[in-house]
Design brief:
10 helices, three-stranded antiparallel sheet, 2 domains
């Protein structure tokens, strides 16, 4: 079982956090007269430069932390970072699993994955499997259980509520990012004939959000 499941947030490294939690601890400092768009800080420490502002810049930094950690545990890697990513964080970047298959196996081993068809007696292990699932996987499972339509309406209602309350117009882009990501996942597995186009429209909103918002902290 992963030693990170019950770890306090302040004890976790960037690569052990899911992106949402990472955003609470990291911030961007926009740069002028520089070849890169911004510098990223995590709890006061520099994480390097990124090419984008807003959510896209934070995601670039987060992905890089996972990439470096996985590279460090690859057969040809250098010991840059001795801490593996968590399974939940790695699940957000499937292409990194394909890029570093040996290191990904180490992540699976440290988290004690539940075999297909088996039910773990450990609540922590079951919770970790849920954390590792993507939004699309969770929604598809709910669709298989016949409760997707109720959830589909709930997702729309949640978005409407957040919009009316002004939460999607706040200075922080995180709420909008998470809402649009949920809407995109919801649309992608809806089974409608225009599901791909609908999901694409929500992803376009995420792209616009990335370009328009900068997360800063002084």
């Amino acid at each position: 079982m992963s030693k990170y499941i019950n770890a306090a947030p302040q004890e976790l490294r960037p690569q052990q956090m899911i992106f949402e939690v990472f955003c609470r601890e990291a911030f961007l400092k926009p740069l002028e007269n520089h070849g890169r768009a911004a510098e990223v800080f995590f709890r006061g420490a520099r994480l390097g430069f990124v090419d984008h502002l807003g959510v896209a810049g934070l995601m670039q930094a987060h992905e890089r932390e996972l990439n470096n950690a996985l590279y460090s545990h690859s057969p040809t890697g250098l010991p840059i970072d001795d801490e593996l990513p968590s399974a939940a964080a790695l699940a957000e970047y499937p292409h990194l699993r394909r890029r570093f298959p040996e290191a990904a196996q180490l992540v699976d081993a440290q988290n004690g994955p539940v075999p297909d068809g088996a039910v773990s007696a450990s609540p922590d292990a079951q919770a970790n499997v849920l954390r590792s699932a993507s939004a699309e996987q969770l929604l598809m499972e709910l669709a298989r259980r016949g409760v997707f339509m109720d959830l589909h309406h709930a997702v729309g209602a949640l978005h409407d509520h957040l919009e009316r309350a002004g939460h999607l117009d706040s200075d922080s882009p995180l709420t909008s990012y998470l809402t649009y990501r949920l809407r995109a996942a919801d649309a992608a597995v809806s089974g409608r004939s225009d599901s791909a186009d609908a999901a694409g429209r929500w992803r376009e909103k995420i792209d616009i959000l990335n370009a328009a918002h900068v997360r800063t902290r002084h």
